[in-house]
Design goal:
168 residues
């Protein structure tokens, strides 16, 4: 069976995805079990640093997911397969590496401070990874025409029936 360009791209992106997920999960488990000797309490994590780290985490999660989704939806359709693959690869990597960087930040902060806020932020980020897996369907949708077109965007308005008040 001949492997297509789409198959190669998705396979490559899945390798990056699983590599990041396994690496970060493994690092997190090693830090959690104290298998990697980090100098604990080497620096005091101030309330300000903790708040900014949590704020960065809370902003990065929806921003990465929404940016990926919006840019895919706004891409002109149909695209050439090569152009669609390039755009999908770029957006997928941006989403993956944004979530990876924030996860690594939380793991490192947890390792140095043992603050449970960073522990739970890391757990949440590892769950977010489940929503970042590359898929054939998303890539294929870029190179095909939308089946529904613009009719989904238009709202249908019903005429008011006799005796019905409009604008309740």
């Amino acid at each position: 069976m001949k492997e297509t360009a789409t198959d190669r791209i998705i396979t490559h992106l899945k390798r990056e995805y699983y590599g990041s997920l396994i690496l970060l999960t493994g690092l997190f488990i090693l830090v959690l079990l104290r298998s990697i000797p980090f100098p604990e309490n080497i620096f005091e994590v101030s309330i300000t640093l903790e708040r900014y780290a949590i704020l960065i985490t809370l902003i990065a999660i929806p921003a990465a997911l929404k940016l990926f989704s919006d840019r895919l939806k706004k891409a002109p359709r149909p695209m050439q397969p090569e152009e669609a693959a390039k755009k999908y690869k770029k957006l997928s990597r941006l989403r993956l590496y944004t979530i990876s960087a924030v996860t690594l930040m939380n793991i490192v902060l947890f390792a140095f401070s043992r603050n449970t806020n960073f522990l739970w932020s890391t757990v949440v980020l590892l769950v977010v990874f489940l929503f970042c897996q590359p898929s054939y369907i998303e890539l294929k949708s870029l190179s095909e025409l939308s089946e529904t077109g613009e009719s989904e965007m238009e709202e249908t308005q019903e005429e008011p029936k006799d005796g019905e008040v409009v604008g309740k």
